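Exam review. A common question shows you a sequence with its structure tokens and asks you to describe the fold in words. Practice with the pair below. Do the first one on your own.
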Amino acid sequence: MSKSSNTVWHQATITRSNREQLNRHGSAILWFTGLSGSGKSTLAHAVEDELYRRGCRTTVLDGDNVRHGLCGDLGFSEIDRTENIRRIGQVATLFVDAGVIVLTAFISPFRIDRERVRMMVERAEDFIEIFCDCPLEVCEQRDVKGLYQRARKGEIADFTGISSPYEQPEKPDLVIDTGHQELSACVSEVISYLQQRKLIPAL
């Protein structure tokens, strides 16, 4: 990974551990991955709602929102998708260092890109890969933007699941059946996992 020249990393006097103690919970990246329409953003925001209710410091990095600014110069070629995820990974690790639980909702179709983000964090367990398991046909039924239909007509190039591959996680930390389960049940699964990992206290 390239670095800017003539720079030195400045070590903060307030550490991640200090911030986690202040927040009374751990920090981590909850990386929601899955096809377009699989429920990543919906689930990430619903989990954040529950974490906020419990007094946790959180933020959501959403795919569409990030492409309005930080990654607004990128397209959807394989190279641009990789750079998109690299940038998000770098931003997410800054939030983790700040003691925040950061929830990301990106298709992130390539395994190697997700693994690169895992390698960015201080500890591998700081990266929690959550696969939103939803059949393609269900994703297409939910497609309010009509993107799948346009992709099948050849109007959108490099569309994941149609003209570009999605590489399903081989060993995700969590698999959530977003295709069939109610949203509340999906949220409960994520919250239970965070409690088991002792990232957040039990109520």
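Now try the second one, then compare your answer with the model answer below.
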Amino acid sequence: MHFGDFQDAMHTKEVNLFHSRLSFSLNTKLISPVEVVDKVIGYYRANKSDIDISQVEGFVRQIIGWREFMRGVYWKEMPGYANLNKLENYNKLPAFYWTGKTKMNCLKNAITNSLENAYAHHIQRLMITGNFALLIQVNPDEVDEWYLGIYIDAIEWVEITNTRGMSQFADGGIIGTKPYVSAASYIKKMSNYCSGCKYDKNKRVGESACPFNSLYWNFLDDKKKHFENNNRMSMMMNLLNKISKSELLEIKERAAKIIENPDNY
């Protein structure tokens, strides 16, 4: 229940929240998608007073919509898909991805949860660990290696399309029409991770500023040529153009320090 309403929520004291934890069994074929979907729809029809259609629709759409789309892309695009790096990112993955030892509260929580449980739900993977890796422009080969090594449900056909495609936009738009990147404001909206963090979610520059903020605007500036004809990126690029040259220079200097030594943050 409540998956449809709160599937994107993240909390420091919750591991799974409203997620089913069926992905391992599905991806290793211990249970079939049909079995899961039939069970959920059957429960809804017998208990309409207890569960809303939005909860069922959101869950079923992930199973027979997105998951099967990933399977189709994998079989259509491999093996070349595994080498795509359209944004030309070549940096190393920070060491803290393997330890959880970082001062950034959102990454500390999402990574520690992943290491301890071999699991994190899709927004933790997409908008915390994946988001940061993309913003510091990590080589997608290293991001793939981490996701395959960490998560119990990471079978290649479903991992590589979600990671290299949706998360890292390394396929240039086969999976999604824009990269999934954000500054701290999105993380604050969807979680309690910003509470008690060393960094200030409202600042772009300065030693106390949240790294996601400077990295976000730096990423948009660095990759302008890749997004100049992307209509879904036009609003973000317009906002980038409104930042003064002096402030953008400060932002890029802050971002450069983080990218050079991410394990210091």
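Model answer, second protein: The mean pLDDT is 93. DSSP finds 13 helices and no strands in the chain. Full marks require stating both points clearly.
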